[in-house]
Amino acid sequence: MATQVLVPPLGTNVDTVTLVTWYKAEGDAVAAGEPLFAVETDKATLDVEAPAAGTLRGVSAAEGDDVPSLSCIAWIAAEGEALPDGAPTDTDEHLPARTGASPSPPHPLTPSPLHPLTPKASPWARTLAAERGIDWTLLQGTGPQGAVVGRDVEAAAQAGRRPAPTPLAARVAQERGIDLAGVGGTGASGRVTRDDVLRAVAGSEPASDIVETFALTGVRGKIAERMMRGSHETAPVTLTAEVDATALVARRKALQAAGLKVSFNDLLVCILARALGEQPRLNAVYQGDRAVVRRSVDIALAVDTDRGLLAPVLRGAERLTLAQVAEGSAALIARARSGQAGPDELKGGTFTLTNLGMFGIDAFTPIINHPECAILGVGRIKPTPWVVGDCIGIRQALWLSLTFDHRLVDGGPAARFLQSVVRGIEAPGAEDEE
Amino acid sequence: MAVMGIAEALREGIREEMRRDPTVFCIGEDIGVPGGWGGAFTVTLGLSEEFGPERIIDTPISESGFAGIAVGAAMTGMRPIADVQYGDFLFCMMDQLVNQAAKMTYMAGGAVKVPLVMRAPVGSTRRGAQHAQTLEVFFTHVPGLKVVAPSTAYDAKGLLKAAVRDDNPVLMFEHKLLYGSKGNRAEKGAVSPIGEVPEEDYIVPIGKGAIRRPGKDVTIVGKLLTVYRALGAADQLAEQGIDAEVIDPRTLVPLDKELILESVRKTHRFVVVEEDNRTHGWGAEIAAMVAEEAFWYLDAPPVRVSAPDIPPPFAPGLEELYVPSVDRVVAAVKGLF
Q: Is A131 exposed, middle or buried (0-12, 13-18, 19+ CB in 10 A)?
């Protein structure tokens, strides 16, 4: 029975790859497992190995062609074996005496040839697959001409309704002694690929070494998705500046002495609101192919909670007094920590403030809170030798890290914005007076 | 219970029906002449001694003539059992059988019955194009005729008796290689389907098939000689791990469709083996029926193993290629896996 040479599925986001090289030509003998051809995805070039031994025949894709995953691009068959795409077999049963040929008995009719690129399944396989909810196009056929037949669907149903592993994965699993039943598939419709098997090999340490496994779902999944988008879908640039925050520290002390319970973040929100007013291009969100610059300064506050990182949004900061900011943010943060923040409070910000100062972090490179344009990372305030006039004094220094999306705004405006923030920190007061 | 071959079983069936019913009589060529064979294949041997020339009627070599007599007798209340020496001669009586016997009940709105039995030996047995044809399909195509084809002694007697008692014209096809392998009319290469045949009265109902060998992997349908080819193939296939079910419909019209369909729904593969010529043949009809009514249960296309589209050859070597062999059946089945 001829074996299909299939283009392996190379992950869920790859449905077409480029055929780079054939290592074998039509008619060459191939051994099972030897490199047969190479394909290239947008990330890598990899060799695909022969799924069976025999003669390479019926090659239907050329070097440079784009070939869909799981498509059949050739066959490996015995020499002289009829290929499913072969010329129609002679269905007439002539007597040898009539043709003058050798006296071999007339051959029984073979089933009609079918196109090799069309996945084939018998009617019974289709019936069973429909009953069992199995996608037969993902199964490796073992019937006449490689057709998926009833037993293939039964086998798939017994294998926990999973699609068959790719031939390469099956062979690698056999070589490495891996039971495919325990390997999760990441290929098309959950097909187990070679990479899945190799991961399983790598991960087959004693179970006691694993402290914990958890799924990236729920809040974790949302964080993962937002972080991926922030780091992969933006053009991030980080600007840093060290600022003398002595005045800010003094200001906070004075306010607290006067009975206003205010955090550094509250002071920074007011400073940001003013700075964003001066550089409105930083108060923007990315929408499709355009940047939308917003009037309302809606500051997302990165909050470390038991459920993970949340960023509740304090809206209209440019219209709020310091006292209102302090009151609003305290309530927001409390709700986020207790899990009571509503979905509307956790989205729709225009700029994010993240502060790791309380953990002793000096500076870091925040990831943009997609689709916002920019995020300000704030480090710890620590006494630092500082040049003051002609002398060296001890000042309360603070590192700022501004990451912005260079698609939406250039370095100049971003730097000017950071300068505004620096000025606001160095000379606090006016903007937060009642 | 007596053990006998098909010729003997038919003879016993005819004898019992003639004893039971005085309207039953036999008519044909050389079926009762003293010192003769009792028909071409000994079926009526000795019956004239019990029933005399009035009920075992020998006719001249005139197929259209005695067929007309038999059809007329049936229409007027008798129950004739006619036979031809070779089925090939049925073509001489096509008008009597197809235009008259088959249609009379329809044309008379049911007022006329034609309880005729016409027996005919068929099959390739070194006799060439005019004495070795397989003729069943010419008659399975005619509405109004029932067609039976027994492949065992038990079925031969039971179907003969059922045919005699049926009010419709029934054609009974008998394979020359199945009459028996003993006696002075035994054919070369005959198989010997001898079996136990009850002495008490029984019939095999017309329209009921039989599973000759149960199996789960493929359904092979044959008739007459090809039942035995299918059984031979099933034995070989079993050694290769393929469990074939062999079905003998026994009656060709009306066909026991459900027996075949039920089997195909179980095995998902279907092969029909026929000695008939391939094109527009009996196997084509069975395969089409399976494709139409059990399509969604098939794991492979329905396949026919047939004789090629030529007259039966006279040369023994060619005849061996003409009649489907066990090897051809095995190859066809293996092509489905």
A: exposed
d(CA A336, CA A345): 9
Q: Which residues contact B20 (CB under 8 A, 6 or more apart)?
A: B201
Structure token pair of residue B280: 């527009």
Q: Using a CB-CB distance cutoff of 8 angstroms, which residues of chain B are in contact with residue A144?
A: 300, 335-337
**Is the backbone of residue B30 left (phi > 0), alpha (psi -120 to 50) or beta?**
left
The closest alpha carbon to A360, from A378, A383, A380, belongs to A380
Contact in structure between B194 and B5 (CB atoms under 8 Å):
yes
DSSP H/E element including A175: helix A167-176
Rounded CA separation A368/A288 (Å): 16
For each of the domains in chain B, give its residue range(s) and CATH number, in order of start.
Answer: 2-197 (3.40.50.970), 210-334 (3.40.50.920)
Tokens coding A428: 């606090």
- The residue of chain A with its CA nearest to that of B308 is A93
Q: Would you say the CATH fold of A219-432 matches that of A167-213?
A: no
Interface test with B, best of A109, A114, A131 (most B CBs within 10 A): A109
A105:B278 CB<8 A: no
pLDDT in tens, A296-316: 999 999 999 888 899 999 999
Alpha carbon distance B260, B212 (integer Å): 12
Centre a 10 Å sphere on the Cβ of residue B277 and count the other Cβ atoms it contains.
21
Instruction: Categorise residue B38: left if φ over 0, alpha if ψ from -120 to 50, beta otherwise.
Output: left
- Reported ipTM: 0.81
Distant-in-sequence, close-in-space partners of A78: CB < 8 Å, separation ≥ 6: A2, A54, A55
Q: Burial code of A222-258, b = ≥16 C-beta within 10 A, e = fewer?
A: ebeebeebbeeebebbbbbbbbbbbebbebbeebeee
Structure tokens at A369: 């809170």
Cβ distance of B303 and A109 shorter than 8 Å: yes
- CA of B311: which chain A residue's CA is closest? A95
| Chain B interface includes A349 (CB < 8 A) | no
Domain locations in chain A as residue ranges: 167-213, 219-432
CA distance B306 to chain A (A): 8
- The SS3 assignment for A346 reads helix
pTM of the model: 0.54
Nearest residue of B to residue A126, measured between CA atoms: B296
Q: Does A42 touch chain B (CB under 8 A)?
A: no
Tens of pLDDT, residue by residue over B253-303, are: 999 999 999 999 999 999 999 999 999 999 999 999 999 999 999 999 999
Instruction: Provide the CATH number for the domain formed by A219-432 in this structure.
Output: 3.30.559.10
CATH 3.40.50 fits A167-213, yes or no: no
